Amino acid sequence: MSKFSDILRSRKKSKGPLLDNQRVAFVATDGVEQIELIESWKAVENAGAEAELVSPKEDVVQGVEHLDRGQRFKVDRTIKTANANEYDALVIPGGVTNPDSLRMNDDALRFIKDFFEQGKPVGVICHGPWTLVETGLVEGRTITSWPSLHTDITNAGGNWVDKEVVTDHGLVSSRSPKDLTAFCNKIVEEFAEGTHEEQAGRAAR
After folding, report:
1. Domain at 22-203: CATH code
2. Which of 28, 47, 110, 115 has the highest count of CB atoms within 10 angstroms of its CB?
3. Tens-place pLDDT, residues 102-128
4. Which CA distances in Å does 193 have to 91, 99, 128, 149, 177?
5. Does the annotation count 126 as an active-site position?
6. 0.85 cut: is pTM over it?
């Protein structure tokens, strides 16, 4: 079992951290694509933020490498006890099973919606937008994802585009692990900007 602090201990933080004093929540459960979780976690920690793994599970989350079982990661907070007020930003990694399970969990949907309603920046990658579709917050937004989600996003009223990274008023999205460099750079940039009034306005509609 790997804990992110152990994985990252030997990594040198970047000069001039952009996210000092920020707390970033990562929402995931079993079946999360581990490279998307690890690389985006590394990006925000290297930028100076404190990251926490928030999950419907109470102990560990099983990561995957595509369809193969990967590492396990220790949960910091359960979704039932977590509150968006305690965080500055949110990341939703992908994997097929992970977002499909999260979109069936009322506590996860409540937690995610609260970030949007508070105008806080959110990063989502690969199959992660599946969970956003369930929140009803995709309507009117331009977003990208793993290509198979194109129809789901369109049916939910979103504008799906095929780009490595898309930003829509604090919502950052990318297609797959191949886009992680662009995704990680952009979430750090957006998280550093703080809250977005337009994000909150759309969520309140």
Report:
1. 3.40.50.880
2. 28
3. 999 999 999 999 999 999 999 999 999
4. 15, 26, 22, 28, 24
5. yes
6. yes
